[in-house]
Amino acid sequence: MSASLLLPDSAAAHRSRDLLAEFPQLSDLPGMPQARMLVEYIIGRRLRELDVSGRDAAGAFIDAENTADVPHRIIVVDDAKGIQTALLRPLAEVAVHLDRIDDSRIAASIADVPEIPDLGQVESAHSAAGRAASAGERNPETWAVINAPKATNALAESIAALQAHVSTIIVIGRSDSMSRAVNKELARGFGRVDVSPGVGKHRMIIGSRPLSAPSLPSFPKRGVITHPSVGDLEVRAHGACFSGVRSDEGSTLLLDALIETLPGSATAANPIAAGDDGTAADSAAVSKPESILDLGCGNGWLLTAAMRATGALRGTGVDVSKAAVASARATAEANGVDVDIVLGDAADHEDSDVAALGEFDLIVLNPPFHQGTTIETDTAEALMATAASHLAPGGQVITVFNTHLRYRDRLEGIIGPSEQLARNKKFTVISSRR
Q1: Which pLDDT score, from 0 to 100, does residue 66 have?
Q2: Do residues 428 and 329 both lie within one domain?
Q3: Which top class of enzyme applies to this chain (predicted)?
């Protein structure tokens, strides 16, 4: 694949290199190739060297009046490192939206630009764009850049929220992760969809010519999860929420194990010692908790089910994702369960919102072990430490994890005495006490 969208000696190439030279501190960071591609595309479009697809215009007619200052505003979605935002800022007025607040803090340290808390309120991000939106007019000078997510629903919701407010949406990502689903979602809202040439391992898919009557999906999605001990639970999920409206297998095993520890369950009445083969639970019954904390609450299903199963009086969920927080709140409300859902980074011990949560009798934990496509366990250990700091005397932390990660020793060291409650071919559930 080409190393650039632009011809080496073109005016746009020289201008792009001059801009990039102003940011030597970013040159070796992982997100730089995609950010450079965006810079080349915008400058190439403005100088009429590139057509809408990012290919050499080669003498094709391009309306100079409609390209010279386009885009005037750019909304950048999920630029986790803030590199795109920093490089685009000299070219246009930029606002950002990041689903994860930890990403938001990183991006803010690199580029000081306005943040859009909710893509459903895009018009408030730019005064001119806001006036156009409130007047029912689309602002042709506003573009959006969406960093391709793993989940199609996350992309679909971003496109649906932005389509009425922008003239162009650029989805950018690694070529091997840009499936036909991207084209399909853009085609729901735009009359033209172009695929750019690949640059290195990256490419763009570009939606333009917005449709006046788009066929966009609505969010949050709705579903029902049935569990034999708690019955039917309505679930709501926004696009970027982990597992959508489904119950993930690990959380289901955790809930099963929790219920088995409660007074009146068969296992609680006659506990059996078990080794690491996981043939039976090895924990005696505990009293029903009066308070529950779910660190990483996702769509809120596990917290809502645990509240219903235990009859706890107080429940709190925490998640670093705005989509998850909105989903969990909607799920709890749909089931008439009164809980607090907090947007916070439970892996960051300096997060004041998390530090102020207080103590809980029961903490449930299904920690992530992927950062993008990379396996990492630092986040899980940080969540264990947060759980330990919020555990009330006599309480327990119930953790589920992929068995191959072997977290039991870490739980012992960070929280306290730990025992296995359940295990299947994929997951292990451990109860830990101080």
Answers
A1: 58
A2: yes
A3: transferase
